[in-house]
Amino acid sequence: MTEASTMPFNQFCFFKSLSYSLFEDDWVNMVESWQAMVAVNAPIPEFSYNMTPFFANAPRLLPVFHRYMAYAEQDPELLPTLTTVLMSTPLLIKVQNILQSTELFAQYVVALKLDNPSASHTQVMQSLQNFLSGIPENKRLQIQKVFAEEEASDSMGLTPAKLNTALQLLHADTQLYIDILSTLQLNQIENLPWQDVVTKIKTLVSAKKPQALPGVEQFLQSLHCISSANPGDMDAENDDDDILRMVEGVDYYPDEDEEELGPHPEGEDYDQHFAAFLQDVQEGQSAHNFADDFGKMAVTDSRHVVESC
């Protein structure tokens, strides 16, 4: 087993390719199955057997998976790393789409220290901040937005629809949106009373977007009502559309940096996107003398091309 063959970047390429071959529900089932087997410390043969059905739409990836499992029997640290990368894949895809640079994304993956189980949270955050400080401001803000949304979704169960409503109410002020999502979580993370959270958010909005305050107040009320009626379940039906309609002048606002970042490739554009991405990788290797071919995912010294990333 080579060092390059088990780099988190290559593992990400593997899981990204697998995720694109599955429907969303199947991806969720796959992740849950993986976690369940890790939790019970399932033997590698059983692990491989139970995961194989999820490769029905991506048979080219199955030999790679089996090699990873064979390596995991030799190296007990590989499976935890694979698990960490698997759980990070959806967020990594979002960041990759924002950065739109092979070199920057490779640096981002390194900054996360995914293959260093001994790295402390403080060390990872410091490494991440060092990376973020060196990229363009618009991309840094968009990545921080993705982080804030992920944390709000995990801690409060906020759905994409709820998050989008909040952003629209704030007239797509990304920094204010990030600040409000961070403040909302104080109720869960620091047990700050809900009324204190509301007061802090009203202060933030009044200072930067006073015209958005009526809609934000109703939005906060809807969050509190849903949370009180069914704690931990934010998927209940809500009146987000009514909230938006009641606030005069609120229309759809594209994210501040949407036009600069450009559209995210998906669906039928997938192959075209990856072809361009592979070209970027090849050019990047020539210019920067990368030690590893980030456009190819390999798990053996022969470096078979499995999927561009």
Anisotropy-based shape = elongated
Low-confidence stretches: 1-5, 229-238, 248-252, 258-306
Along the chain, the helix and strand elements come as: HHHHHHHHHHHHHHHH
Strand content: under 5%
User: What's the number of structural domains?
Assistant: 2
Largest sheet: none
Kindly name the structural category.
Answer: mainly alpha
Structural notes for this entry:
Residues 1-5, 229-238, 248-252 and 258-306 have low confidence and may be disordered. The protein has two domains: 4-89 and 266-288; 138-258, no CATH class. It is elongated and about 60 Å long. It contains 16 helices and no strands. The chain has 309 residues and is mainly alpha-helical.
Entry summary:
With 309 residues, the protein is an all-alpha fold. The protein is 65% helix and 0% strand. It is elongated and about 60 Å long.
Defining traits:
disordered N terminus; mainly alpha; 2 domains; 16 helices; elongated
Element layout with pairings:
Elements: H1 8-20, H2 24-39, H3 44-51, H4 62-74, H5 78-99, H6 102-111, H7 121-132, H8 137-156, H9 160-169, H10 174-184, H11 186-189, H12 194-208, H13 213-229, H14 240-246, H15 258-261, H16 270-288
